[in-house]
Amino acid sequence: MQRLQSRTAEKVKALCRLRDSAKERAETGGFLAEGLRLCRDIAQYLPARELYATEKMLSEHPELTNLAAQTFEISDAVAEKLSDTKTTQGVFALFERPAPLETLRSGGRYLALEHVQDPANLGALLRSASAFGFEGVLLCSHCADWFSPKVLRAGMGAVAKLRYACYDDVNELAKALRAANIALYAAALERAVSLEQAPALTDAGLAVLIGNEGNGLTDEAVALADVTVRIPMMPNVESLNAAVAGSILLWHFRSLEEAAQ
Amino acid sequence: MQRLQSRTAEKVKALCRLRDSAKERAETGGFLAEGLRLCRDIAQYLPARELYATEKMLSEHPELTNLAAQTFEISDAVAEKLSDTKTTQGVFALFERPAPLETLRSGGRYLALEHVQDPANLGALLRSASAFGFEGVLLCSHCADWFSPKVLRAGMGAVAKLRYACYDDVNELAKALRAANIALYAAALERAVSLEQAPALTDAGLAVLIGNEGNGLTDEAVALADVTVRIPMMPNVESLNAAVAGSILLWHFRSLEEAAQ
Known about the structure:
2 copies of one chain form a homodimer.
Chain A (H helix, E strand, L loop, with lengths): L1 E3 L5 H11 L1 H7 L1 E5 L1 H8 L4 E7 H6 L9 E5 L1 H7 L8 E6 L12 E6 L4 H13 L4 E5 L8 H7 L2 H4 L1 E5 L2 H10 L3 E5 L5 E2 L11 E5 L8 H6 L2 E4 L11 H11 L4 H4 L1
Keywords (chains A, B): Methyltransferase, Transferase
Family (chains A, B): Belongs to the class IV-like SAM-binding methyltransferase superfamily. RNA methyltransferase TrmH family.
GO molecular function, one term (chains A, B): RNA methyltransferase activity
């Protein structure tokens, strides 16, 4: 087993760049995950190139050496350096980032996000999408980076289960959906049908589109939608948390058919 | 108008204690809110004792002087000292904390929380409870403090609209619910009916009980519930974000009848 003991080693610096920079992740095709459970969860779905763990963790969990092609024993100092959390468990893995979807599946169910920026919201939405039978997430207009440590943590491994695609803007997204004959449902407050009246299951594919935390969807996005729906609320209430609103739509349009088989 | 210019003034120190300490808030019966919109929202429901705003804010929004019994013009330095955020707007208000509920209303709808600790989750749940026609929130076993700056911010003023009560533990909560003949619905993963099979509207009152972010409800809480419900999910998914799971239950058991009147 190789050792990685110095905080200033080139390899440690490279891993920190991978942790901190979306650009670095895109260029190298990898991402860094932290934590025993998260690394194990992701490894069920994506190939791990390298595992890094402290001596203590490796002696408590010897099976960790099977998780990746290569294992490095790291010092506590290196673990602290690599960590994005207050107290680190001392386990990290470098995963291969899956390729984005090139085309959407006709009949598929997708969560689409326009300019969702809070990593905790994005992570919570990913968990909901994965729980309610959506197969992929379509990001447009500068959402929080999918493979950042905070999204990985808030998403609890859902990132690894879901397919994804990125679009420059909502026009590109709408074009991709039309090409696959997938209906676009947008959450909006005005000129929208109540979610209670929206048919829950459709045979055709659908994409549920959620907007920015503070500002909601752009007018452009609402105009491109096939159906706009609103979540009925008490009259003196203006809005819900973005992850909550999105998750209620995902719950309404869920498809757990595979679960019953 | 009085002025408050020095960061080290006794009054400024007292306001910082109010911002930071749940004990101080309980003892003085007040709480401090920050931000133009939040202060205005809360003032629709609760009496404001004092308003603090910078010269700039007071000249842009002269109607702010009507918001509280007394207004103080504060310096930028005092605004920064009082602020809990990265960049402050320079508006704060000291509100009177409403008294907790002494008894529950038979036929009432409540959100009950056991040991929910993340202020963002608590705030998101409050917004959902307020949006879906729940009249109060019942906190037990050391939840995040209801009147803390982070909960106020995440809750977007919902704190001011909802009545609340605190209980030492889930036993005390169950006693109060039984006394008012209110059914306790608990979210649980095992030995639970699917939410799809749970009747949505009941004439009797109900309380929806949500547990801690990491550990869910205690066994004691599950044992005390009249009905345990689970949100059906795909088989390879273990859990949802706590605020999302709770909000889906609140949505299912919503009562927007007043909205239609």
